[in-house]
Structure prediction request, 345 residues.
Amino acid sequence: MATAARKAPAKSKSDGKSGLSAPKPAEFTKDEELAAYRHMLLIRRFEEKAGQLYGMGFIGGFCHLYIGQEAVVTGMKMALIDGDQMITAYRDHGHMLAMELSPRGVMAELTGRRGGLSRGKGGSMHMFSKEKHFYGGHGIVGAQVSLGTGLAFANRYRDNNNVSLTYFGDGAANQGQVYESFNMASLWKLPVIYIIENNRYAMGTSVSRSSAETNFSHRGASFKIPGIQVDGMDVRAVKAAADQATEWCRAGNGPIILEMQTYRYRGHSMSDPAKYRSKEEVQKMRSDHDPIEQVKARLMEKKWATEDELKTIDKEVRDIVADAAEFAQNDAEPDPSELWTDIVL
Ligand SMILES: Cc1ncc(C[n+]2csc(CCOP(=O)(O)OP(=O)(O)O)c2C)c(N)n1
Ligand SMILES: [Mg+2]
Prediction:
């Protein structure tokens, strides 16, 4: 646990709009490129498998896939120190894998088995790991923002050096409690990074149809919270922004907003008529901006990996996911007596 005390709060020089500018993408070493490739691929393959299991009837209820957005959690995780917390909404499988929660535990929770992270009683949107500092998994749009602010309050109160990574979507950014949280976080200089994953859509509504201010990095202006826009499809850009934001928070400057410009390839949830966007738009993002293909192209171009070496990584990742899926299909369901545990009567 990192416990170096945080510096005394500095007076923020930011005007709340553009006090900081987006840094240049980080220069990755070979090892960083390979690690980013592996981690993003694990999320992608895991989500593809979850989609398959859903189609086969092994997963019931809600299930929101993170395919397309992998660079965001992967780049952010690269800047964390032990004890930093993460909290997010319901599109959460990628966040959990980034925080190193076990693929078996996540998949078995999706299938409602006793080996799941919530012992099969929470499902896709409700998983937690205090040990790994992952605080959910929340189905109420925007609710995690005040909880994530509370995590930052705890860090400040304990005077540790940790930061709360509080993720929410472009749709959630229009919820009232987000702004109540912004006010307190700025007033008390809480170490929280508000990561707005702008994937351009809230369920079936585009940002331009639902938001008066579509530049989400400006959403903290009234609260003197600086914000920057980040290419959320480039893991190096995310890592550079993550370094800047964590340093900002650890230096005692208070909160910061990172608007991650990203894109989800799949539907909002598992049934989605997709009438709000064209197939061409999705195809163009996949072919021109895919976060995994970008890393792969750099690895090949720099001759840091051969096709065969990348295939080996692909195989290792597929094996982890196949093992998780196997476990999640064969593990026992919770005992009926579990209906009476973990509840407040
Ligand atoms: C308080 C509340 N209102 C409405 C909903 C229904 N709902 C579920 S997801 C969603 C859209 C949120 O979009 P966004 O924040 O952009 O996240 P994304 O799905 O794009 O990751 C809505 C309106 C909800 N779950 N909670
Ligand atoms: Mg969205």
Summary: The domain at 30-327 is CATH 3.40.50.970 (Rossmann fold). The first strand starts at residue 85 and ends at 87. Residues 9-18 have pLDDT under 50 and may be disordered.
